[in-house]
Design a protein that fits this description.
The structure is a homodimer.
Chain A: H1 35-42, E1 47-49, E2 54-56, E3 64-70, E4 72-78, E5 84-91, E6 95-96, E7 107-110, E8 114-120, H2 121-130, H3 132-158, H4 161-173, E9 188-190, H5 195-202, H6 206-218, E10 222-226, E11 229-232, H7 235-242
Antiparallel strand pairs in A: 1-8, 2-7, 3-6, 3-8, 4-5, 4-7, 9-11, 10-11
Helix pairs in contact in A: 2-3, 4-7, 5-6
The structure holds a DNA duplex (30 and 30 nucleotides).
DNA sequence: CGTTGTGTTGATATTAATCAACAAGTGTGG
DNA sequence: CCACACTTGTTGATTAATATCAACACAACG
C-alpha cells in the first residue's frame, strides 16, 4: 500500500547523539517491519545504547520518536516512591512515538545492548505529510498496541501470579505480529530482561516471579537452562494457564 | 486542519439497528468532539441502548465501529471463569473502533441509558480515504488512549486500593481532553457505574471498593450524597493520593 | 579473590479476597 | 398502596495470596 521513497529532503544528518535524550510514546511490542517503516528507519543511522542505559526519561519534553533496530528495551512508568510498572518491552522493529503529548509518559532503558534510530517530531510530521500511507500504518500499529495494553490490564487486574508468568512467557515467545516467528514451541527462548523487570512488568515482586518459575519447572511446564532462557516443555498447557483455564 | 464535508455518497442509511451487534476496539474516554468527528457522527443516527444491555460481544467479528453520543458504557474483557476486567468507560464522544483485529477484543455494555452510532468498517475505510485529516485525528485519539492505558497499567500493577480509588475518582471527575470540564473540584460528580464496575475497573473486589469509599469519607476527602454521586472535599489531597504521594 | 548484583528459597507480615450477614433501595404484582 | 423479591451497597470475620524481610548461592567482574 504505498511508496515511501527517500526524497532529497528526507535524509537524516548522520548519526544523531541518542544517548539519553527524549523520545515519544508508547509501543509495547508491535514490530513495525512493514516496508514503509523499514525505509523510514533507513533514513537515520542506528545509534547504540548500552545495557542499563536509559534513552527516554519520563516527563522530558517529547521531541523525538524512536525506532528500535536491535536489542531490547523496557518501557516504564514510576511512582514518586520508586514503585515501577514496566508497560512493555520494545524489541527489534518496535516503534516508539505513538502517544502524542507534551512530555514522555514513560521512560525507556535498554535491557541488553540495543540500537535505536531517533527522529524529531518535526521530521515525522513531514514524512507523514509526504507519505499518507504511513499514517495508516501508524494507526494500525497503535491499534495493535491498544489491544495488547487491554490484554495487559486483564492480566494485571485479574490474573494470578501463575497465570501472569505463563502469559508473559507465551507472549514473549511469540513475537509481535509481523515478526518472523523465531523458534517453534519446544525451542529455547531468550529472556534478556532480569527477573526484576519481569516482576515490574507483571505487577509482582521478584520473589514471587522466582517462586513461580520454580513451580512451573517442578510441574514440567518449562525448563530454564539458564536464568535468561526458557524452554517450553508443555506449550499447550502453558497457553491454557495463561488464558485462565487452569 | 481539515474539511470533512458531507458528500453525496457519505450519508448513512437511516437509523441502523444497533441493539446488540458488533463493534470495534478500544477507547477509554477520549472524547472525539473534534469537528471532523462531529460530522462523522452526524452521518449516522444515534440508536438508544438501554442500561445493562450489551452492544459489543467480545470475540464477535469486528465489522463495525461506534461512536457514543450520549450516556456511558463499560468496555471489558473476560476470563473463562467469569473474572472480568473493565478496560475503560466510554462516555459521550468516545470513539470505539481504534483497535484493528478480526474480532472484538472486548465487550461493551451500557451502564446507563446510552446512545450510539454504528458504522461499518467498510464505511470508515471510505471516509478515511476521502478525508485524510481524519486519519490523523484518529491517530491522536489512539495516542491518548495509549497514554491512558499505560497509566492504568501503573494503577493495576503498583497502586494500593486507596490510590486506585482516588485515581479513578480524580480521573472520572476530569473528563477527557477535549470535553467541557463539567464542574470545578468542589462540585458533585455523577458515578453512573455500579460499585462492582468500579471494582472490575480497578482490579479490586466490590467489598474493597466499598470499604475504601468509606475510609475516604471518614478522612473527609469525599462525600457521597448517594451511592452514585461523589463530592470532592479535598481535591488536592485526593490528587496527591492518586499520584502515590500519600 | 573479594565484591557486587542477581536469582533462589525460607519465614513472616500484610493487603486485599473471600465468606457471610444485613441494610437500603427498587421494582413488581397483588 | 403495600408486601415481597431482588439487587446493590455496606460492614464484619476470616482466609489466602502475595509482599516483605532475611539469608544464601552463584556468576560476573574488577
Amino acid at each position: 500500500m504505498s511508496t515511501l521513497r527517500s526524497r532529497p529532503n528526507s535524509r537524516v544528518q548522520g548519526s544523531e547523539p541518542c544517548g539519553s535524550c527524549g523520545a515519544r510514546q508508547a509501543s509495547i511490542c508491535a514490530a513495525l517491519d512493514d516496508q514503509d517503516l523499514r525505509q523510514l528507519a533507513a533514513l537515520a543511522l542506528p545509534v547504540p545504547v548500552a545495557a542499563g542505559h536509559s534513552f527516554i526519561a519520563e516527563g522530558d519534553p517529547a521531541e523525538y520518536f524512536f525506532n528500535v533496530t536491535a536489542g531490547t528495551a523496557k518501557l516504564f512508568k514510576l511512582l514518586p516512591d520508586g514503585r515501577r510498572q514496566i508497560t512493555g518491552f520494545a524489541t527489534t522493529g518496535t516503534f516508539l512515538g505513538l502517544a502524542v503529548s507534551a512530555t514522555y509518559a514513560f521512560g525507556a532503558e535498554a535491557v541488553e545492548p540495543t540500537r535505536i534510530c531517533r527522529f524529531s517530531r518535526h521530521r515525522l510530521r513531514h514524512m507523514l505529510d509526504a507519505f499518507p500511507a504511513m499514517e495508516r500504518r501508524l494507526l494500525e500499529v497503535a491499534s495493535n498496541e491498544l489491544v495488547a495494553a487491554q490484554e495487559q490490564m486483564l492480566l494485571l487486574g485479574r490474573k494470578t501470579a501463575r497465570e501472569r508468568v505463563a502469559s508473559f512467557l507465551v507472549a514473549w515467545a511469540k513475537p509481535a505480529p509481523g515478526c518472523v516467528p523465531s523458534l517453534p514451541p519446544p525451542g529455547e527462548v531468550r529472556l534478556p530482561m532480569a527477573r526484576g523487570d519481569i516482576a515490574d512488568y507483571l505487577g509482582l515482586t521478584v520473589e514471587t516471579v522466582s517462586r513461580t518459575f520454580t513451580r512451573l519447572k517442578a510441574d514440567r511446564l518449562i525448563a530454564t537452562p539458564s536464568p535468561s532462557a526458557v524452554v517450553f516443555r508443555d506449550h499447550a498447557r502453558l497457553i491454557a494457564i495463561a488464558a485462565g483455564q487452569a
